[in-house]
Write a structure and sequence with these properties.
The protein is an alpha+beta fold. It contains 21 helices and twelve strands.
């Protein structure tokens, strides 16, 4: 069906049509695979200089005709519409992904797919993985382009990929179909994470029931077994060298935080590191992020990240008193988040936790430059200790000052001969794995010491750190008292 148009006006908008009409002297154009309504819309838009009508229903055709005829302003209007689509619902998310992939594959234009990958990667980093789980839920229906897109936005969030692969194998009665092979190959090329150990074991269980139809299938499965085996050996080696008396994770380098733009990135890096981290460290990072780095902070994203990490790694929740004391003392802009954390049994708990303060106060120089045996005594004997001996129950932390070039550290004394007769140490309940160290000071309460960096001596002899956090929180005139939070029912990290 023919539609007439003013060639001068249309040529003014389209260099392609201008060449066809002025150089090749064509008087008609055959437009295929475009509806009459969209062609009419295109012509009227060229006349008026404004996009007449665009929606999800006609976006593909309008974008196609605009791209083919190189109407740059109309292509830009299509991009603006595409960018404005609300990604809060799955239907729109699916539309954006399918259109971006179609444009990339058919029109050979990467702008939409690049923007879509950035948007969805950001949602995944902020712990919004709803789309990816839904998208891969219909795993067998996905084509290679769609699976490649899923891998790009998933990044190192291998848990989602593992869950999807396991579900597909179980749904297809443990058949290793083309999509399963594709995803298994991708998983084999990425490092195995310790936090997904249970999922890897479940995947191996599924793969053990598969009848391999080719040597390629066998190689894929054997590679996975090899990767998991090597990771398990690394974990065992790591556990073998854990110091049984030294308090871990004190005065860590704040540059570890500075390198990451989002909390999800930070957690990912922390998981891949050799640090034995826990929920306290993650909360301390939020403290540091807000008070020192002054970085943008998404409270809901942080809450989701913290909750997902605690659940995936089977960590102990935060001590409720710790969250309250750190927040109250430092006036962080986290009021809504703190209240939300308090309401969640997954995120915070008082069950099993005991807060113990040292019986001695120190100046910064005394604490960091002198050797100290600091006593911690339970004011009331916890029921978990089941102790009927006379005297006090508690423990001693020995801090070694860094005079004469010695490195400062804090160790838990565990040998009976290190304890006086009036202080009982219960080795079966107390260890560095269920303790978390903070520092009280002045009348202001407590501050975490995880990410503050290592303290140094200044030219005038005061204990400072090159990072302003240390000078801000611990001026020399303030007295310090060590505080330890203990979970008597489990390790903090597990």
């Amino acid at each position: 069906e023919a539609i007439t148009a003013n060639s001068v006006i249309v040529s003014y908008n389209s260099p392609v049509i201008d060449k066809l009409t002025t150089e090749l002297l064509q008087t008609s154009l055959d437009v295929q695979d475009i509806s009459r309504e969209v062609v009419q819309n295109f012509i009227e838009s060229c006349y008026s200089g404004e996009l007449q009508d665009i929606s999800k229903d006609n976006f593909r055709e309008i974008n196609k005709i605009s791209t083919v005829f190189e109407v740059s302003w109309l292509v830009e209007k299509c991009f603006e519409f595409f960018e404005s689509v609300d990604l809060g619902v799955y239907e729109n998310q699916l539309f954006v992904v399918k259109e971006a992939l179609w444009v990339s594959r058919t029109l050979k234009k990467k702008r939409l797919i690049d923007m879509t990958i950035r948007k969805f990667s950001l949602k995944i980093k902020n712990s919004d993985s709803f789309f990816l789980r839904e998208f891969l839920g219909d795993f067998s229906a996905r084509n290679p382009d769609e699976l490649n897109f899923a891998l790009k936005i998933a990044g190192n969030r291998e848990a989602i990929l593992l869950e999807s692969l396991i579900a597909n194998l179980e749904k297809n009665l443990h058949e290793l179909d083309a999509n399963s092979k594709f995803l298994l190959k991708a998983i084999n090329t990425s490092p195995c994470s310790q936090k997904n150990n249970a999922l890897y074991l479940k995947l191996i269980t599924c793969l053990e029931t598969i009848n391999m139809s080719s040597e390629v299938d066998c190689a894929l499965v054997l590679q996975l077994f090899k990767n998991v085996s090597l990771r398990s050996q690394a974990i065992l080696r790591k556990k073998d060298v854990v110091n049984k008396t030294k308090l871990p994770n004190l005065f860590l380098d704040p540059d570890i935080l500075n390198k990451h733009e989002s909390f999800a990135d930070f957690i990912e890096a922390l998981t891949a590191s050799t640090l034995e981290f826990n929920s306290f460290m993650i909360f301390d990072a939020a403290y540091h992020w807000l008070r020192i780095l002054r970085r943008p902070f998404d409270a809901e994203g942080f809450k989701a990240t913290l909750q997902n990490t605690i659940l995936e790694l089977n960590m102990s929740p935060l001590c409720l008193d710790y969250v309250t004391n750190i927040y109250s003392a430092n006036c962080l802009p986290l009021e809504n988040l703190i209240e939300s954390l308090k309401e969640s049994d997954v995120l915070t708990s008082s069950n099993g936790y005991v807060r113990v303060c040292s019986s001695v106060e120190y100046s910064p120089s005394q604490f960091f430059y002198e050797n100290n045996d600091t006593r911690f005594i339970f004011k009331e004997k916890p029921q978990e200790l089941c102790c009927d001996q006379s005297g006090d129950c508690g423990f001693i932390l020995r801090s070694s000052g860094f005079n004469d070039g010695k490195k400062f550290d804090i160790n838990l004394l565990t040998k009976p001969e290190d304890y006086p007769n009036d202080l009982h140490f219960h080795e079966e309940h107390l260890s560095v794995t269920n303790m978390y160290f903070a520092m009280g000071y002045g009348k202001n309460g407590e501050v975490p010491v995880t990410w503050c960096g290592f303290p140094q001596r200044s030219l005038i002899g005061l204990v400072i750190h090159t990072f302003s956090w240390w000078r801000y929180n611990f001026p020399s005139e303030h007295q310090l008292w060590p505080v330890v939070y203990i979970n008597l029912k489990s390790n903090i990290s597990t």
